[in-house]
Amino acid sequence: MLRAVLVLGGTAAGLAALLSFKTHGAGADAAPAPSPSATSATAAGGSAQASAAAATPAAGKSPSAGQSPSAGQSPAGQAPAAARTVTGTVAQTQYGPMQVQVTLSGKKITNVTVLQRTNDGSESDQIDSAAIPKLTSETLTAQSAGIDAVSGASYTSSGYIKSLQSALDKASA
After folding, report:
1. Whole-number Å distance between alpha carbons of 45 and 25
2. Alpha-carbon distance 31 to 143, whole Å?
3. Can you spell out the DSSP letters for 128-162?
4. What are the domain boundaries of the chain?
């Protein structure tokens, strides 16, 4: 009898620990944290790196040192740096349509805007408001539509990824 109680108690404790462990939520939340840090580090330390890079070639002006690397990447002209926007097709989900618009600078995804989102009431609003920022962050990190779905937002994630892939397909055509 004591063994049965211990086994059931251990099973219940293990199940509770397993259910409280959120791998996807922790991974998605951890990904955006380095981005702002990296952005602020680039803003703070990037000028020192840029001035070091500008000092290496020959003559680099300190005020424009932050702009030197981008000018060095596209010496022929500004065309690759021009942003363009591509709209994905509307992906129909069980809870409504999803449609995204991608802003690209060259081949780099710089922004994703959701034009249409699921619209099946307040629960959809709550799910979308939590899932869409995570999906957008993952898209900017992965630079592709090869991203993970957000747990608890399967239909939103599926529609987002389908529309994103169609926009990227249009952009590469």
Report:
1. 30
2. 13
3. HHHHHHHHHHHHHHHTSS--PPPTT-HHHHHHHHH
4. 82-173
Domain 82-173 has CATH 3.30.1490.20: no
pLDDT digits 0-9 by tens, 97-143: 999 999 999 889 999 999 998 887 888 889 999 999 999 999 999 99
**C-beta separation of 82 from 70 below 8 A:** no
- Return phi, psi of residue 153, to 5°: -135, 50
- Say what the pTM is: 0.55
Query: Tokens at residue 127, please?
Result: 């799910």
The 3-state DSSP class for residue 63 equals coil
> CA Rg, the chain, in Å?
23
74 three-state secondary structure:
coil
* DSSP helix/strand/coil, 78: coil
Integer Cα distance of 145 and 134 in angstroms: 13
Amino acid letter, residue 104:
L
CA proximity to 101, closest of 93, 122, 62, 109: 109
